[in-house]
Amino acid sequence: MTRGLFRIAAAILTILGSILVVAPLTGQAAAQPSVAGDADQQIGVPKFLKLSLDSVTPTAVTTASDPVVTVTGTVTNIGDRVVDDVSVRIQRAPAVTEPGGVRSSLRLDQVNYEFAGPFQDVAERLSPGQRKQFILTVAVRGGTDSSEGALEITEPGVYPLLLNVNGEPAYGTQARLDDARFLLPVLGVPPAGGSEPAVPAAPAPPVATTVLWPLADRPRWVPTEPAEDRGQVLLTDDELAASLGKGGRLDQLLGALENEIGVDGARNRPLARSICLAIDPDLLLTAAAMTDGYRVLASPSDPDGQTRDGSGAAQARAWLDRLRVVAAANCTVALPFAQADLTALAAVHDPALTARAVSEPADIVDRILGVRSLRGVGIPDSGSIDPSAGGLLRDQNIRTAVLAETAVAEQGSAGAGGADDLTQGPAGAEPTPAEPARPEVVRMPDIVPAAPVAALAETPAGEGPGARPDPSLHAVTYDIWSATALAAVGSNPPTPSFTPARVRYDVTNDSRTARLQDALGALTWTALNPRPDRPRAQLLVPPQQWGANREEAITLLRQVDALLTGGMATARPLPELLAQPADPRPYEPDHLARAVADGVPERFVAPIRDQGARITALSRALVEVPELELTPTEYVTPLRDDLIRALTLSDRRAGGTAQPDVYAQRRLDRTGSTMDRIYGSVTVLPPGGVYTLASEQSPLLLVARNELPVAIRVKFRIEAPPDASIDDTGEQILPPNGTRSFQIPTEVNDSRNLVIPISLTTPDGVALGNATSVSVRSNAYGQALAIITACAATLLLLLAGRRLWHRFRGRPDPADEAFDPEVQRQVSRYRRFLARAVRRREPR
Questions:
Q1: How many Å apart are CA 88 and CA 36, to the nearest integer?
Q2: CA atoms in the 13 A half-sphere facing the CB of 381
Q3: Which of 60-64, 368-372, 499-503, 750-754 has the lowest mean pLDDT?
Q4: Whole-angstrom Cα distance, residue 232 to residue 234?
Q5: In the prediction, which pLDDT does 426 show?
Q6: pLDDT tens readout for residues 688-719
Q7: Gap between the Cα atoms of 337 and 314, Å rounded
Q8: 667: left (phi over 0), alpha (psi -120 to 50) or beta
């Protein structure tokens, strides 16, 4: 009996101990908000529930909308224990008054959400893995039937809202277990009941609005022999087929435009005027190549492995046809090729690569789409450039760079505050209604080419490049807060490099609906908050590889349209923005540290520079043959494209750089091996055995082979030994896919076997193929033959002189004494005969 009581007491003490240990943990969880990146996301802090926002209706409140806001969400038990008494409520913070507040307000603690509505029960109990959806309806303001717990919003603005879920986990106490934050733009307050009239937004000059609509994708072209690209191209995977096909990412982005502005832009002219399509030329080249059939790697991780037929030829053809129609009726601008990192490209310092990445994209877009795209504008994916990248743009006749506002700062302000201190856009006075809105255009500094990546951050204010304005390069800046919010919309949301460190957090912990609401609030804030220190203008720039789906894109376009139709914004086409005069004050770039960290690592610069030099040397050696369809430019261009793709910024900000680095290194290795094969395809054929010259001046016969599909100029590099002299034949042309024989003038003064090294080079001296050697044997005997010949000639002269001497004296030559007497009689008779014949011919 005693033993049984002891066991019962021990069990009770164990349970009480567990409660005492677990309760403080749940209390700690309740004391802090559940926001990605907050201090509460630490090892050891338990997570019991996950609250996600599913929908908000309306997404933006207007004077004509319903006087209530309906929020739908889902609570999921992600812990390992039961949670009882699950309930939710909505809370509201004051309207955002600073531009940076559209981001920082999402990290406020619960106590800053001053209004709190009543709790609404969701479930009595949620077991591990179980989820429950709820609908929460709350009035915008008081005076309605559902005024209890109203949001009490009395004037337009952008309001941060918080959904708070409470529950009691097993072995714990009631606590706040998670929350979800989002922004609610209120363009106008609807009327409440019959006594509270609607409250429209205060009169203000409309915001001149421009929207860049990006169409880009990850580089997928596998480096191959350029001649092979003229057949079926090889792609890393077939994901692009799904993206271009029905329901794919690129299909939905294009479909959203077609839905809102029409295929020809006639459906909504004001909205269409504000939009400019920003297109990656590498995407167009890949899609165009897919239309003729293509192959994909069976395993993307094995570029040398098996391949299979691609399935997206029809999808690519249909998508390009749709894009041609939309682009023909709207503004179009080309992005840098393959979203190249312009800072790394400038460090490579290869003029041919630079031209292909920066200047030629506009021509590619025009050729494939049949349009005339904008010229003279550069749109770096990072949103910033350093002095060397600025010099690169200027050298390519790029006069305007589209940058984040933190990429430029007034002279003298660099170093005064970091990116964390930026809460305002470019300085400028608010125009009156009669004045045109001052555009966000600033003058960039005099850029020095080939400057180090970190040179910009190290340049003191008032010194160096930043102190000298450059009238030929301007910057059009966009608001970083709206750009950051737009980047978070959709799948795989990145955090841009220009987002200040103090408000950086993992946005994937927020639901897609919450991130969409944040973007709606960010792009609306400027229209609702006229300020003398901010221009009444905004340029909306989503990330180039944007993950928004059709519904999200349509919602954003309709929000812009609501601003336009409500008179709060006016459409400003991109060409008009680019034509605006620059701010006369000098500016200097700033805040590059994060962009450098997110960019292409420096270790790729030197190998790409080396391969680019090899491609340039090859290009200078190639010869265009009119009869051939393939030109030298067409042959080497795919090689340069592969190097530029290795410099892409795609996926470098979506979380981790390991995979992009692997892709870049793999692409660089493949390009290097391709160049090795190309250079090895032009060589001199080694002769078999010993080559024997007929004489000391017989020509040396050589055969050179060119396995390339284009003709090439070559030079023979022959290292003649001391006993041989070989003439330089100069440049020679080898036909494509063929061989050619050459006679090399040679003089050998030695009868010994000579070994002569021979190789081929380009006219610039770059080695081609494999060097070989020729063993040569000549019939010449050298100095001995000359002595023997001289002695024989001397003896012949002496003998001839002696005979002539005896003949002149009338004496027979002793050499004739040995002749036969009969022979002598015949000779005498012949002489007499000749004498008589002579006398008869003499005149008498």
A1: 20
A2: 36
A3: 750-754
A4: 7
A5: 33
A6: 655 555 455 567 778 899 999 999 999 988 77
A7: 24
A8: alpha
